[in-house]
Structures are given as C-alpha cells and as structure tokens.
Design goal:
alpha/beta, eight-stranded mixed β-sheet, 29% helix, binds ligand UGB
Length: 598
C-alpha cells in the first residue's frame, strides 16, 4: 500500500479487493510514491475496466478461476455424471414442401427479429491480416461478408414488412460484437461503404473487453511482460455477447419495441442467409425459446456436436459439446470407439454451426437472473504432469452456445438440422491446415467457402428448373474442390426458394464454364441459354426479362499459389483468381419494362 499514488476512493476499494484476493504480487515491483504515478493510475483505470466488464466483477472472476483451475488440476470432467445420446430435432431438406412452409413463416416473422453478428475474433486459424467480415465471400462480384449480411437483412426487412402491410416493427436492427482487435476496422469498413445501404441508426457496435490472464492455480493475475503496470489480458470468447446485450440495455430496447427474436451468427458463413428464413420459421412454429442450427457432421470434425445429456439425477439438456470433449465423453460412457461415423457416413451427433435463434422474452428474463454470465471453462497448458505450473498464462473462456446450460428443464430448447450445402461454409482454416483436412471432411477455407456459394446457387437454380451443368474437379492450394458454374445473386433477387422460382421460367440452361451475376431485384430468366459470362443489373422499378442465347469466352479461373506474395492476401488464400476474358454486361438504369435477348 505504501507504494500507491493518490487515487480515488473507488480505486482504493479496488486495491483492497485485489489484496484480499491474494493479488499483492501486482504491486510488488512498484517504486515509492511520486515515481511513475501516472502509470500507476493507468493501472487502476485498467483494473476498473476489468472489474466493470465482468458480471460480478474481478473478485468473482478470480473466485471462479480458482474453482475451475482446481477442477482442471484434479482432472474433473465437466460432464461427470452425464450420459450422451443423440437428440431429436427438426430436419429440413431444401425445397421440400415443409421447408417452403417454414421459409414463408420465417419471412413473415423476420420484421420482429434482431440480428447479432459476433465478430470479435481475429481468426488466428485463418491467418488473414484483416478483419474477417471484410473478406470477399466470392470473387465474382467481390462482395464482402459484411455487405452480404447487411443486404440479406435488408432484403428480409423489405419482404417481411411488405407482407405485414405496415403493422408492427420495421427496420430490423443489427448489433455487431467487436473487440479491440476488430472495432476500429469494422467501423471504418461500414463508414467507407455508407453502411452498405443500412441506416446507420440500425447498426449498433458493441465491444467485448478482454479478461485478465492467470499465472498459476491460485489464479494470480498475470502482469503484462511488456508493462509492469498492466495486467495481461486475452479474449474471453464469443459467450461475452450475452452479457453485452444485457448490460447495454439493447435486448430490453428490442423487446420494448415489439421484437420477438434474436438471431446470432458468425463472421464468415456466406450460405447462412439461405438457412435463416426456414430456421426462423421453425422457431416460430415450434415456439422454441432456443433453436440451434446444425448440419450433418463428420466424426471428429472440428465443430461441436449437438448432444442430449442425461444426468444420473434425471436432469437432461440438449447442448453443444465441443469437438475436443465429445470423443472422450463418449469413450467414458460405454462407447469404446468414441466419436465415429454411423451408417449414414456422418457422426450421429449433428454439428453445431453457432447460428442461434432465441425468443427475446424468455431470454431477457433469464439474463436478468444471470446478468448474462455464461458457464466458463479454462484450458491451461501445464508444464508437466504435476499440473502445478503453466507453460504460459491462461484465462477463463466462454462460448455463446453454452447459454442453455443454465436454463430450467421447462425451457423449450430445440435444434434444426440442414444440409451443409446450403447452410454452412465458413472460412476458418488457412490453406496449409485446410490441405491437411482428412479426405471427405470439409476444408472450411477461403477456397471451399467460395466454391460452396457457387454450388449452392447452382443446385438451387436446378431445383427451380434450370439445367445447370455438373461441376468439374480442380485443386487449389492443395484442396480438391468441385467447381460449379459461378452463379451469384443479390439477396433481394432470391431471398427464399419461392423467390428464386418466380424469377425463372421456360427452358433455361447454364453451361459449366459460365458465370452469371444478377444484382438487380426484378430480373427474370426466361428461356435463357448461357454459355459464357452474363452480368446483369437493374435499378429498383426496372423489370427485365432475360432470354435467348448468351455465348462468349467468359471468365476463366486461374490457379494462384498461396505463397505468392505478389498477389493480394484475400486472393492467394483461395488459391485462384478470375481472368475476365469476355462478358455481356448490362445495366438497366431507368424504371420500366425491358427485355434482353441477345
Ligand atoms: N468471436 C468473438 O466474437 N469473440 C471472441 O472472443 C472469439 C470469437 P471461431 P470457434 O462453426 O465451426 C465455434 O474462432 O469458437 C467470434 C463453436 O464454438 O471462428 O473455434 C468470431 O469472430 C464451435 O462449436 O470459432 O468455434 C467468429 O465469428 C463450432 O460451431 C465466432 O465468434 C465452430 O464455431 C466463432 O469463432 C464452427
């Protein structure tokens, strides 16, 4: 205490708390008062921030850390007493009648929704230097993830509000959770692009704080090796989103404005919005408080498994079990082979894609009890088997999908399984790691993420009656992928399967080496035979019928090596670039009816 500068009474309280919590080492190397007092004050400012941003404050963080570290040292299994089994949920097949019904219900419901994008992660696994939402989801139009997400929400808003004929809430809000790593670059991206057409007031940026690192099993806070007046911090995980929505009052604001649903999603899944309308329809019709989207999952694939857990005392819950925990849990509960594929060729446990839909009322009620605190975990890397020292400092972490862990059994927790081809193609792995993914498992790379968009759009057009050629196999950055015709459209052109069907008539065909980019809303394909590249845009109010034969040399995909630093990073991580040799490009700038028949 003798080393403290003059500080406010609040800061004195914080200092006392730290001493009571056995953190006196933080002050050990401080010089006498008068020396570096500014830095000491900065230290207390940081402590105040860490204290305020954690439900229950720093004392509670340290207490939980001690408990979790003791459990980890004792080798305690968090799933002790639980037996896993395969849960039952709603399974949807794209284009089938019940899928279309759910889509229709979901679109009607969408005006009562709010979206939350968790984008605080830097994506270390991808090794990309920018923020992930700024990456193009495909290189045909170069649209970035954030633009695509915003345009998808605007398309949902437009259709949903039109169907509601002015009743109820409009302007679907979007909250983006950022961190110190992503906050400024996310704002810059939005400002530079006029918020991609959304009203700035519709978008709220939240910022998650990092949490204090821990040096040992007694949860002694780690001093930053580069600054003795600072506590080392690391990200706490995407689970922070719940306490942020609660503490900022945003959730309450949404509920008060008549909103019913909140949809959480991750930073790089270009297929997601093809699954959103039907999944929201499932939530509405089944009255789910919590609905997790899932896809068939290959055994041991690095995505969590949705699992039913039954405790010896009779408690049950349907929850995501992270991929590194599912296999040991199965082995420990009478399944000696662990996590293996069943006769379908997939693990019987559906894969969690961390797209979650919550009903706001019950969600807010729960958060008012917990303050948004989520069950945490700790993952220390020990120096040796005595588990007394760490290789490097650790910290508590939390995941947004663990929210249902504190819910009472009466909560309606369900999930919806969809084929991955139209629901899930994240960009998470760098080229080298992706190339090592076992054959048959998804790469989850920039290469596969882009190819998945073309495949999904090709298959959707096929289902709508267009003759689309089969894909060809190619290898990019060591990954073998199917290359379908490069078909892309704006969300407002084909938000749902029913929308796409109304846009396609007659005998249409698209050849394997074609590119089709549709960026206007009212563009109708009627007896179109495409063998080459067609880029077509129309302002709102222009209705364009496109038919006849379009033939040209088109756009050609060329290999790029990911190590070739002369090529921009966002290009070389996909392993190919597009050589725009020849195209038919047409823009209709005036309202009215038009026909394009080359
Ligand atoms: N994120 C944050 O916003 N803040 C953080 O502190 C950390 C991340 P990752 P992860 O879909 O394949 C999840 O790192 O956590 C954002 C599920 O837990 O891409 O390894 C970040 O910006 C897992 O069950 O994924 O694994 C990104 O948008 C499985 O479903 C999102 O959180 C897996 O995703 C996810 O972060 C998957």
């Amino acid at each position: 205490r003798k080393n403290l500068p003059i500080i406010s009474p609040k800061q004195v309280e914080l200092a006392k708390m730290l001493l009571e919590m056995n953190q006196s080492h933080l002050f050990e190397h401080w010089p006498e008062p008068g020396v570096e007092d500014d830095k000491k004050r900065e230290f207390f400012e940081q402590v105040a921030r860490l204290n305020a941003s954690y439900p229950g404050g720093l004392a509670s963080y340290i207490k939980t850390a001690r408990e979790l570290l003791a459990d980890s040292k004792a080798g305690k299994n968090p799933y002790d007493g639980f037996t896993p089994s395969v849960p039952s949920g709603e399974a949807l097949t794209f284009g089938e009648d019940n899928f279309v019904q759910y889509e229709n219900a979901g679109v009607r419901e969408a005006r009562k929704a709010a979206f939350v994008l968790v984008a605080g992660g830097l994506g270390e696994r991808l090794g990309y230097n920018g923020i992930k939402v700024a990456l193009p989801l495909e290189s045909t139009t170069g649209t970035c993830f954030l633009q695509h997400y915003i345009e998808s929400i605007l398309a949902l808003q437009e259709t949903s509000c039109r169907l509601a004929q002015g009743e109820g809430p409009t302007d679907i809000p979007l909250a983006i959770m950022t961190s110190d790593d992503t906050y400024s670059r996310t704002i810059q991206l939005l400002e530079k692009n006029a918020y991609f057409g959304m009203k700035p007031s519709q978008i709220k940026l939240l910022k998650q704080e990092k949490v204090a690192c821990l040096d040992d099993n007694d949860a002694r806070l780690a001093v930053d090796p580069k600054n003795k007046y600072s506590i080392q911090t690391k990200p706490h995980g995407h689970g922070d989103v719940h306490s942020l929505l609660y503490s900022t009052g945003l959730l309450k604001e949404w509920l008060d404005a008549g909103r019913k649903w909140v949809l959480f999603f991750q930073d790089t899944n270009g297929l997601l919005f093809k699954a959103v309308p039907s999944a929201l329809g499932v939530s509405a019709i089944k009255e789910y408080h919590v609905n997790s989207l899932a896809v068939p999952r290959k055994a041991k694939e690095a995505i969590g498994g949705i699992t039913k857990l039954t405790h010896q005392d009779g408690r049950t819950m349907v929850i995501n079990v992270e991929y590194n925990q599912l296999d040991p849990l199965l082995r420990a509960t009478g399944n000696p082979d662990g996590d293996v594929n069943c006769e379908t060729g997939y693990s019987p446990f559906p894969g969690n894609i961390n797209q979650l839909i919550f009903e706001i009322g019950p969600y807010l009620e729960e958060l008012s009890k917990t303050g948004g605190a989520i069950k945490e975990f700790v993952n220390p890397k020990y120096k040796d088997s005595t588990k007394t020292a760490f290789k490097s400092s650790t910290r508590l972490e939390c995941m947004m999908q663990d929210y249902p862990k504190t819910l009472p059994p009466s909560a309606r927790v369900g999930f919806t399984v969809m084929d991955a081809w139209f629901a899930y193609a994240p960009v998470k792995n760098n080229p080298e790691d992706a190339a090592k993914v076992p054959k048959g498992n998804p790469y989850h790379s920039a290469t596969s993420g882009e190819m998945a968009i073309y495949k999904a759009n090709s298959l959707i057009l096929r289902k709508a009656g267009v003759k689309v050629d089969n894909p060809v196999q190619k290898v990019f950055n060591g990954q073998e992928v199917d290359v379908w015709p490069r078909i892309v459209w704006k969300p407002k052109w084909g938000l749902t399967f029913s929308d796409v069907k109304t846009k396609v008539t007659g005998n249409c065909s698209v050849s394997g080496n074609s590119t089709l980019a549709i960026t206007g809303q009212s563009i109708y394909l009627d007896d179109l035979a495409l063998d080459g590249t067609l880029i077509i845009d129309a302002v709102d109010g222009a209705e364009v019928k496109v038919g006849g034969s379009v033939q040209n040399a088109g756009w050609i995909i060329e290999n790029v090596d990911f190590q070739d630093t002369s090529v921009p990073e966002e290009v070389r991580i996909r392993g190919f670039k597009i050589n725009k040799v020849e195209q038919l490009e047409k823009t209709f700038n005036e309202p009215g009816n038009f026909s394009l028949k080359p």
